[in-house]
From TrEMBL:
GO terms for molecular function: 23S rRNA pseudouridine(746) synthase activity; RNA binding; tRNA pseudouridine(32) synthase activity. The lineage of its organism: Bacteria, Pseudomonadati, Pseudomonadota, Gammaproteobacteria, Thiotrichales. The keyword Isomerase applies. Residues 17-162 form the Pseudouridine synthase RsuA/RluA-like domain. SUPFAM superfamilies: Pseudouridine synthase. This is Dual-specificity RNA pseudouridine synthase RluA. It comes from Thiomicrospira cyclica (strain DSM 14477 / JCM 11371 / ALM1) (Thioalkalimicrobium cyclicum). Belongs to the pseudouridine synthase RluA family. Keywords: Isomerase, rRNA processing, tRNA processing.
Length: 214
C-alpha cells in the first residue's frame, strides 16, 4: 500500500469540487469484483479525502489523468459531460513499427469479444461506432510515439484500433504481438490531456500531464 504522501504526489489539479490525479499503471480506477487483490485508486486515498467519487475510468494498465468529484453535484454534472461527449481527451503512446503517414482516422465498430473477455473485437454487424484520430510525434527505428484522440469512448478503443492498423501499443498484454509485447514492461499508453467545463464556475479547464516515456 502506498503512503499518503504518494497519493498526494499523484494530484495534478484540485479545488472545492474536483480532484484530478496521475493514476499509475497497474492500479484499477474502481474496485474489482471480489475476490480481486489488485489495488485500486480508493485503496490509496487518505482518510480526509475518502469521499471522492469516481467520474470516469481508465484501464488498469493505462496511466494518466483520472478526474474525481468531491460532491454529488459535481459528480452528476461531470458524469453527464462524459456521457454526452462534452469533454476532450488526449492520450500519448508508443506503438510498434514504421507508419506510412503522419496522421489519420480510424473508424472500426467494436463490441465485447464475449468468448475472450475482457478483449474487444471489430464487428461490422453488431459493433458500436468507434472513431480515433492519431498523429505521429516521432518515428524511431522500429516504433513511434503518437498522440491519440478518441472521438468515441469505447472500452479498449485505442488499444484495439492501433492493433487493427498493424501498430499495436508496446507492452499491451491483450492486443500486442510477441515482439511489441516484449518491448516494454507495461502498457505504454497514457491519458495526457483532459478538457472540460467546470461544474461550478463554468470556465473551460484544460489539464495536461505528459507521459514520462515520451
Amino acid at each position: 500500500m502506498a503512503s499518503i504522501d504518494t497519493f498526494n504526489d499523484w494530484i495534478i489539479f484540485e479545488d472545492e469540487d474536483l480532484l484530478a490525479i496521475n493514476k499509475p499503471s497497474g492500479v484499477l480506477s474502481v474496485p474489482g469484483k471480489p475476490p480481486n487483490p489488485t489495488p485500486c485508486v480508493q485503496d490509496y486515498i487518505p482518510t480526509p479525502q475518502a469521499a471522492l467519487l469516481t467520474i470516469h475510468r481508465l484501464d488498469m494498465d493505462t496511466s494518466g489523468i483520472l478526474l474525481m468529484a468531491k460532491n454529488k453535484t459535481a459528480h452528476r454534472f461531470m458524469s453527464m459531460a462524459f456521457q454526452n461527449r462534452e469533454t476532450t481527451k488526449g492520450y500519448q503512446a508508443l506503438c510498434a513499427g514504421i507508419i506510412g503517414s503522419w496522421e489519420g482516422q480510424i473508424q472500426l465498430p467494436m463490441r465485447c469479444d464475449w468468448d475472450n473477455r475482457p478483449r474487444q473485437c471489430i464487428d461490422f454487424v453488431q459493433g458500436r461506432h468507434a472513431q480515433t484520430h492519431w498523429q505521429v510525434i516521432h518515428q524511431f527505428d522500429d516504433y513511434f510515439s503518437v498522440k491519440l484522440s478518441p472521438i468515441t469512448g469505447r472500452s479498449h478503443q485505442l488499444r484495439l484500433h492501433m492493433k487493427m492498423i498493424g501498430h499495436p501499443i508496446l507492452g499491451d498484454t491483450l492486443y500486442a504481438d510477441q515482439s511489441a509485447l516484449t518491448k516494454a514492461s507495461r502498457l505504454l499508453l497514457h491519458a495526457s490531456h483532459l478538457g472540460f467545463i467546470h461544474p461550478t464556475t463554468h470556465q473551460s479547464i484544460a489539464l495536461n500531464n505528459p507521459a514520462s516515456f515520451i
